[in-house]
Amino acid sequence: DYPEIQEEISRKDDRFLALLKGVYVESRDPPAQVKDQGGEYLPCKHEEKRLTKLGHLEALDVKKVPKGKISIVEALTLLNNHKLHPHIWTAEKIAEEYSLELKEVTSLLEFFIPFSVQEFPTESRKAIKAT
After folding, report:
1. Do the beta carbons of residue 51 and residue 84 sit within 8 Å?
2. 35 pLDDT band (50/70/90 cuts)?
3. CA–CA separation, 100 vs 107, rounded Å?
4. Distance, CA of 86 to chain centre
5. In a 10 Å sphere around its CB, with 0-12 CB exposed, 13-18 middle and 19+ buried, how is residue 54 labelled?
6. Under 8 Å between Cβ of 66 and 48
7. For 66, phi and psi rounded to 5 degrees?
8. Nearest to residue 116, comparing CAs of 71, 78, 74, 83?
9. Ramachandran assignment for 94, one of left (phi > 0), alpha (psi -120 to 50 degrees), beta (any other)
10. For residues 15 and 73, what is the distance between their CA atoms, to the nearest angstrom?
């Protein structure tokens, strides 16, 4: 769009070309040194995955998680289940159902408690009078 800029771009500068011709770069990679350990290989860790149990929230979360871990949606679900029915959803049942360590489940249930929102009926509210 701007002819003066296009002209400046396409113009050759002999002084800079001469300087560029004087530049010579030589690069050499060091020889690769591979140590042979005599057939010893690093152990490969294959994590066993399990399918999540999400129900109607399935589209919101990951489909597979490593065994011994849970997704965010699963954590919220199991915390809410325990809060609503603690006699059914015990720490032992949760640990078995989600393939978790019992010690971790008891810590989770002790330190993470989901909030409950309560709304008060409007007719029982008292208006604050300005003084």
Report:
1. no
2. low
3. 12
4. 30
5. middle
6. yes
7. -65, 150
8. 83
9. alpha
10. 66
pLDDT: is 46 or 1 the higher one? Answer: 1
Six token digits for residue 92: 């032992």
State both tokens at 55: 């129900």
pTM: 0.46
How many angstroms separate the CA atoms of 61 and 77, rounded?
Answer: 12
- Domain assignments of the chain as residue spans, ordered by start: 49-111
Number of H helices, E strands in the chain: 5, 2
Nearest Cα residue to 84 out of 114, 120, 52: 114
Q: How far apart are the first and last CA of the chain?
A: 70
